[in-house]
Design goal:
It is a single chain. It is globular, with a radius of gyration of 25 Å. The strands form 6 sheets. Strands 2-1-11-10-12-13-14-15-16 form a 9-stranded mixed β-sheet, with helices on both faces. It has a 5-stranded parallel β-sheet with strand order 4-3-5-6-7, sandwiched between helices. It contains 21 helices and 26 strands. The protein is 38% helix and 20% strand. Helix 2 crosses helix 3 and helix 8 crosses helix 9. Among the domains are: 201 residues, Rossmann fold, CATH 3.40.50; 133 residues, GMP Synthetase, Chain A, domain 3. It is an enzyme of class 6 (ligase).
Length: 592
């Protein structure tokens, strides 16, 4: 069958890759499987149930889940095949943003996963005139449950109506409305059609490596990134299209446990997760003591010298692989074919290290507005430090100022109810302006230099690309997070969130009393002096105008909950600067 609309993908999977574990979610400590047939049956019930509720094509329904789960997948399929527009919403955004999105999209019904999200939605329900009801996935006393919709659709005599509506859905019809996380101003509704996402799935298909010896029935994916994010969502469709089983991780905290249980072949990651995995590996190896510790550092030294990706060669590398790097792979379940990295720039140093440890990472690049993949590395064409070749069905053009622009079937048509912003984001000849600066090298690989909006100019007129400097700084064990500032100032400075656990261990080894809470640790003069040494080493690799002249340690962990990171763990620069305004003023000698 030809795949043209999102709901064609589950039908394609049923026809070509039927299996007992299409989706797997953990409930009360037990992994529960949903077969391909059961998934399609449940999706049909949802479609029929919603039609009985009076839902019509073009209506908007919000889906909000704390962690990805099978119910979300069933709802997504059930909505799409009757022309209902899904509006996935991040669980972590503020009630004010919920209210704005619900009113802007004119949400009819909302499905939430749990008690906390239900409370959040009920807070703003009275301010949303279009909202007729809220359903939950968990069983919650006094709340309408999603199974009521399944029960409404139990009678399959109206299935013909579902099929008639499906046939009438065009590739250009709106499939989903995704609101950007709103790091600046109000969230924008990105309108993505069936063609937008399907063309991206099909364009990305050749880039996913497969093992000839591995049957689709045995191929497993561990999905942990928010499914409301288009990166994870497109992969969710791509993995269905390949017939792979998708296991939904319980949470970031339980990732280690879930990886050991599932032994995945594929996993999507964001750079922050790769950094955390490496930090855990490093801390375990460096504190092993005795011979184990010596072997760990010997192996690490060997791998850090490699400037290209290659298999172990020579006796030393083969021994290091067997004694050390095999354990790294086992820590990720032992069966990983590849990690797929997106959402932000991955450190070249870490990428090389993982690749040479036998853990391939395919780094890609894209935006919500491009559904999302613009380019991605593959096993046949890979260059560490780049985001790979653009997809074959896209045209990438670098503008005179270095901005990456793109045209093709996966590029969105417009922002919802926002003609002015839509017009601003396209060039006169119809290319979408990504807001990123980059270039295509002689071999056709796309390299991102920085975010156009994040680059800033010092008062001396010099441009600073903060992300590149921050990636260098995060290689330090002392630095958990860092943000370079200095727009309009005479020099670059930086906020640093220390790795508080590492700092405590360092202090203990050196008989220093730096306190135990983040607030106390951030005030330690000894720690600040030690981190300044790290910054000095980084400055040696930078031009004079880029060098960080002063730092201040922040007294708390930067988190999603604190509003300092996006749901995919990127910095909310404006929020970080506002939060630590007193430290900013201190670095630049501003008077309060």
């Amino acid at each position: 069958m030809t795949i043209k609309r999102l709901f064609d993908i589950p039908h394609h999977a049923l026809e070509n890759f039927p299996k007992s574990d299409m989706f797997v979610t953990k409930y009360q400590g037990e992994w529960q499987k949903t077969s391909t047939q059961e998934f399609v049956n449940q999706g049909n019930k949802i479609s029929r149930g919603l039609l009985k509720l009076g839902i019509k094509p073009g209506d908007k329904i919000a889906l909000i889940t704390t962690n990805s789960r099978t119910e979300w997948a069933v709802m997504d399929f059930g909505l799409s095949q009757i022309g209902v527009v899904s509006v996935p919403v991040y669980p972590s955004i503020s009630p004010e943003d919920y209210e704005f999105i619900f009113n802007n999209a004119e949400i009819k019904y909302c499905f939430v996963s749990d008690k906390e999200l239900l409370a959040k939605v009920m807070k703003i329900k009275h301010n949303v005139a279009s909202l007729q009801g809220v359903f939950t996935f968990d069983q919650i006393t006094g709340a309408a449950n999603w199974k009521e919709i399944l029960d409404l659709g139990e009678d399959d005599s109206t299935q013909i109506e579902v099929e008639d509506l499906s046939k009438a859905i065009n590739t250009q019809d709106l499939a989903t409305l995704i609101y950007t996380s709103g790091t600046t101003g109000k969230p924008k509704g990105v309108m993505l059609t069936h063609e937008n996402i399907v063309s991206n799935v099909l364009g990305s298909y050749p880039r996913i490596p497969k093992k000839k010896s591995l049957d689709y029935k045995d191929t497993r994916v561990l999905s942990f990134l928010p499914i409301c994010h288009i990166f994870e969502r497109m992969l969710f469709y791509l993995f269905q299209y390949n017939g792979f089983s998708i296991y939904f991780a319980e949470s970031i905290e339980k990732m280690g446990e879930n990886v050991r249980e599932v032994k995945p072949h594929y996993m999507s990651v964001v750079p922050r997760l790769v950094e955390k995995v490496y930090d855990k590996i490093y801390n375990t190896g460096s504190s092993a003591g005795g011979l184990k510790q010596k072997i760990f550092f010997w192996a690490l030294n060997l791998i850090q010298k490699k400037k290209e990706v290659s298999k172990p060669s020579g006796l030393a590398e083969i021994i290091a692989d067997k004694l050390v790097f095999k354990k790294w792979r086992e820590g990720l379940g032992g069966e990983i074919i590849t990690l797929v990295s997106g959402s932000a720039a991955l450190s070249t140093r870490l990428n090389l290290m993982f690749q040479n440890a036998g853990i391939p990472i395919l780094e890609g690049y894209g935006l919500t507005e491009t559904s999302p993949v613009i380019s991605v590395n593959s096993f046949g064409k890979m260059k560490v430090g780049t985001v790979g070749h653009p997809l074959d069905n896209l045209t990438v053009k670098i503008q005179e100022d270095g901005e990456i622009t793109v045209k093709g079937p996966s590029v969105f048509k417009a922002y919802f109810k926002n003609e002015e912003q839509t017009k601003e984001t396209f060039t006169e000849d119809g290319f979408f302006k990504t807001g990123d600066i980059g270039h295509i090298d002689s071999e056709g690989f796309l390299q991102i230099t920085d975010r156009k909006k994040e680059m800033f100019k010092t008062s001396g007129g010099k441009y600073i690309a903060p992300q590149m400097i921050e990636n260098l700084a995060k290689a330090s064990k002392f630095i958990e997070q860092v943000m370079v500032v200095g727009d309009g100032e005479k020099m670059p400075c930086a906020f640093v969130q220390p790795d508080f656990e590492f700092a405590k261990n360092w202090a203990m080894r050196n008989n220093l009393n730096i306190g135990s809470t983040p607030q106390e640790i951030a005030k330690s003069a000894e720690l600040k002096e030690r981190i300044e040494k790290e910054i000095h080493n980084i400055n040696e690799h930078l031009g004079n105008w880029e060098q960080i002249k002063k730092i201040e340690l922040t007294p708390e962990v930067w988190s999603i909950e604190a509003g300092l990171l996006t749901p995919t763990l990127k910095l909310k620069r404006k929020a970080v600067k506002e939060k630590f305004k007193d430290l900013y003023d201190k670095m630049y000698g501003h008077q309060n």
